[in-house]
Write a structure and sequence with these properties.
GO molecular function: acyltransferase activity
Strand order of the largest sheet: 1-2-3-4-5-14-6
CATH class of the largest domain: Alpha Beta
EC number: 2.3.1.-
Distance between the termini: 33 Å
Helix content: 25-40%
Structural class: alpha+beta
CATH superfamily of the largest domain: Gcn5-related N-acetyltransferase (GNAT)
Organism: Curtobacterium citri
Largest sheet: 7 strands, mixed
Radius of gyration: 23 Å
Protein name: GNAT family N-acetyltransferase
Keywords: Acyltransferase, Transferase
Number of domains: 3
Strand content: 25-35%
Number of strands: 18
Length: 443
Amino acid sequence: MASNDAFDDRYDLREFAPTTDDQGAPTPETEAWMRAVGLGFHEPHPDAEGAARMASHFLEDQETFLGAYLRDPLPGSVDETWPAGTFTWFRKRLSWGDGASIDTQAISAVTVRPTERRRGILRRMMTHALERGVAEGYAVASLTASEGTIYRRFGFGSAIRERAVRVRRERALPLLAPTTGTVAVVTPEWLAGGVGRAVFDRFDARTPGSMVRNAGTWPIVFGLRDGEGKPATDVRAAVHRPAGATAASDVDGYVTWRVKEGRGGTDTVLEVVDLVYATDAAYLSLWEFLLSIDLNDVVRYTRSRLDDPVVAALGDNRAYDVEHEEDHVWLRVLDVPAVLTSRPYAVDGSISLAVSDAMGFAAGTYRLDVVDGRGTVTRTADDDGGEADLRLDVADLGAVLIGSVSPVTLAAAGLVHADDPAAPAVFRAMLVPPRVPHGITYF
């Protein structure tokens, strides 16, 4: 408790809902919190119009702000009004890919002022938020991380990874198999008029690991605004329809993109802003379209899934280069029975799990029984000391939850422990998702 006392002596932890005035501008407390977040992520503060727009998005997403404020700030410092640590959470649905989903406590805007590091701010904010998440009925928390080493100590596991890839146009076409349907160029405004969201809803329902998007994300992915909230003037859009379809409601895929001119002998790059597909046919056809666009050298996509079918489809698969691979969606289980009963399973069977959790939320021993693809969970012990087929930390339960990460892999890494070496493979077979997880939403 001494560390908590020290925190309370130095900081005041405040939870509040963002608010705006009669003109839609953020109120002083909300504006100060926004400025602290911008400082933490090296982002310019928006003008008055942009700040009002951002605040309206926070309200639409029903965010809960958290700030750690210095009790005795130095005169003239931003700490007189800005929080030294920021944190927010809001409701965000995670898809299991079979039409089922679970609401997650989505965490974002996590910053700590460099002058206040190693004083327990992040731990206090995270503990407060997860306790509130449990009280609000969340079974799992989620986040996307700017750094990969922060969140495991709080019980989060990396559940989806993604890749940034480049495909060289001159070596890519023709594809090995013919594509189907029709691609048409449209305006971003037409896409934003309802068609784009309808396609995303279909993608979301069928794709394990997909998460609904923040209100502020839509204008950016549709190409109406840039990352700083200013009007975008360089983004184009196209849609795919199945063969013979003509109606707007028939659109089953879309892509938005911009082209960055090369200088000094460097490649001209077509950058994919957003690529959303409700069918595999739409995905391949939109890729073929992008690779057919003249006056550029490389198509770059930063949201590629690890088993990208484009690799197999290309005329020369060496045209496809992986620039970078990193963690994407992180999950933190708060209620083991609620999470495990919410998702589908590939095969029936039974397995027992001893889950350790340093923060205490999910610790226990549980038995999962799956019949006809649906699970029931029985808690057999209040701690992780009961008899179990598998022993793992709550972070590793979060990692395997969607089915993108294998318990067999984590066993090989020394993170999942089993007396019977076949047990991790049994759990892996149960967790196989209906499709490969693909997360394309940051928050």
